Amino acid sequence: MLRQCGANVARTEGGGRMPLINVKVLEGVFSEAQKAEIVKRLTDAMVGIEGENMRSLTLVIVEDVKSGSWGVGGRPLSTDDVKAMAAGEASG
Predict the structure, then answer these.
(1) Are 11 and 1 in contact (CB under 8 A)?
(2) 23 strand-pairing partners
(3) How far is residue 71's CA from residue 33's CA, in Å, rounded to a whole number?
(4) Which of 38, 31, 29 is nearest to 58 (CA)?
């Protein structure tokens, strides 16, 4: 059992501290393979900072946010908007 105890730390039942990285992405933008790559690379980054012994304790959560439930610059952002930006197209 884990419980969050701050922006970037979780505690195990025994009270040990472990890194917690929570990434929010718009649904439908990243494939499952890309999400796995996000988890791998962020874990590698934390291990690079904290040391290899922390690899097995580093928790990365990738959460999908519903399209349109994310806002940038006062405007809701959809999955289609992000895909258009990634393709180099202007979004309306």
Answers:
(1) no
(2) 62
(3) 25
(4) 38
Q: Which two tokens stand for residue 80?
A: 């289609």
81 token code pair: 């908007």
Burial of 19 (0-12, 13-18, 19+ CB in 10 A): buried
Q: How far apart are the first and last CA of the chain?
A: 44
Residues 47/58, Cβ–Cβ less than 8 Å: yes
* Tens-digit pLDDT profile for residues 13-65: 555 678 899 999 999 999 999 999 999 999 999 999 999 999 999 999 999 99
The dihedral region occupied by 34, where left means phi > 0, alpha psi between -120 and 50, and beta the remainder, is alpha
The pairing of beta strand 75-77 with beta strand 70-72: antiparallel
Residue with tokens 């970037």: 8
